[in-house]
Amino acid sequence: MNTAIRTHGFSESVIRGMTRLANEHDAINLAQGFPNFATPEVLKEAAVTAIREDVNQYAITWGAQRLRDILSRKYWDWYGMDVDPATEITITCGSTEAMAATLLAIANPGDEVIVFEPFYENYGPDTILCDAMPVYVPIALGQELDTDQLTAAFSARTRAIVVNTPNNPTGKVFTSIELEAIADLCQRYDAYAVTDEIYEHIVYEGRHIPIATLPGMRDRTITISGASKTFSATGWRVGTIIAPPPVTSAIRKVHDFLTVGAPAPLQEGVAAGLEQLGTDYYATLLADYRVRRNVICRGLAAAGFRCNPPAGSYYVLADFSDLSDLPDDQFSVWLTKEKGVAVVPGSSFYSSAPLECKLIRFAFCKTVDVLEEAVARLMTTRSA
Questions:
Q1: Of the candidates 188, 173, 198, which has an alpha carbon nearest to the alpha carbon of residue 220?
Q2: For the domain 3-32+280-378, what is the CATH code?
Q3: What is this structure's pTM?
Q4: For the chain, which ranges sit under pLDDT 50?
């Protein structure tokens, strides 16, 4: 296969590109979503212990037994989901690989995969790499899902719909009514719901509802999550997939040939975190992020940006149209170079950017002092 053809039209990740620009100009990096604070000690100590005890060879391809067993118990405790660790759980190299492995396992050439936009930048390329076709359905910022528009997007060719809740970049948390509408369409058209729930424990308004828990959806939902956001360990690359046994079997074959397996000692670290960190940890995680959200949103408003506080995740999309006439990509570069704050242009989250896009994304997974410094730098933001 000619990989130049398969990747034709792809650009490099805009998000990672903005990180490189931030490093070049010593800017505060509010572009890429990695925390600047520590992973919990219990995870680090467990991983170090595993390394010292020579847990340094391949784990079982689809994930260490201990981690899968603990995940099974946690999904029951969190969501009342009865998950078989032997046949329904796969551990991957991050949720990014989880999404790619899932779509490669279920999508065939000519299939269609519905993607809400704005969307995390990997979903479109993941679909195209399967020789499937992404079908984009817009959700206006701050608005409810237009179920008529979504219904029109489904067809006999629809193989799956990607549902990211809480959402990156908008912070939207899908409601039970919206999820029920999606579930109804999946059942009507015999399609899978592929859910990205990596921000499941960072919800400020509403509540996180796995679509797999809705009637009729257990056997047609592939639930993706991971350790990166919950445990502030984005570099560990430990993702999780919950899927019905026939789908899990297919996913594991793809996963095996993509990466063989996730890092063995780090799986032990994640297992320790899931096992030992109780409800207080998750409550504190959310409370701390709520403070950060308030700092960045108040600061952006004071600096002349327009934004609504996100209902979940740790991103905020802000409108800069009152501050500059530049296109979003140029404004993002200008902000990085001249004001020392790196962001992501909003157009990178759209298949076809809205005309004269005036949105940029801020990641607020930083300590409060860093966010306050970023806000101070933004207070004089105004470009030609």
A1: 188
A2: 3.90.1150.10
A3: 0.94
A4: 1-5, 8-10
